[in-house]
Design a protein that fits this description.
Layout: E1 4-8, H1 12-25, E2 29-32, E3 34-35, E4 43-44, E5 54-55, E6 67-70, E7 79-82, E8 88-92, E9 101-104, E10 107-108, E11 114-115, E12 117-121, H2 126-142, E13 144-146, E14 149-151
Parallel strand pairs: 5-10
Antiparallel strand pairs: 1-12, 2-4, 2-6, 3-8, 6-9, 7-8, 9-12, 10-11, 13-14
Helix pairs in contact: 1-2
């Protein structure tokens, strides 16, 4: 299955400008993805309410928090994964959730640089693709392309200015 993804670099203020633009024109649900402990899902109705937005807690983008985005009224499903020790873990990801988008907000990493942010979907049709196109339009409208990277002109020195 071939999906779509778009990476971009954003400071904290850049990220807030982007998510405010998305929140102003869209109604979405944002659920923290990854391992779900005790079956408790953390859900937001606005991107600006996501804690720590625009600040990376880890220097590797795949180890930072990520979110599953869907249209309101769409129920998300947990995936049951058996462990080698005989236990069970529950994972929220895109595999069991048709019509969703993955949002990995990167951002500033302790003044050392900017960690890449990404939106992606593994689906080529339906709500997942519609959500991808919405984010893609807002990102490309708010960020400029520099070689293969999308970034704001005022982002920290680095990907935009080419160390």
């Amino acid at each position: 299955m071939r999906g779509k993804s778009l990476g971009f670099f954003a400071t904290k203020s850049d990220m807030f400008s982007l998510v405010e633009a998305i929140d102003a024109t869209s109604s979405i649900n944002i659920t923290q993805a990854g391992e779900v402990v005790d079956g408790k899902l953390t859900v937001f109705s606005r991107l600006v309410d996501v804690p720590g937005l625009g600040v990376s807690s880890h220097p590797t983008s795949v180890l930072n928090d990520f979110y599953l985005i869907c249209k309101p009224g769409v129920a998300v499903s947990l995936r049951k994964v058996s462990t080698k020790q005989g236990g069970v873990r529950y994972i929220l990801d895109q595999k069991e959730n048709l019509g969703t988008l993955v949002f990995r907000p990167g951002g500033e990493y302790f003044g050392e640089g900017i960690i890449v942010s990404e939106v992606s979907t593994i689906y080529q049709s339906g709500d997942g693709l519609d959500l991808f196109k919405l984010f893609e339009k807002k990102i490309k409208g708010n960020f400029k392309k520099n070689s293969l990277l999308l970034c704001r002109a005022r982002s920290l020195r680095g990907p935009c200015e080419g160390y």
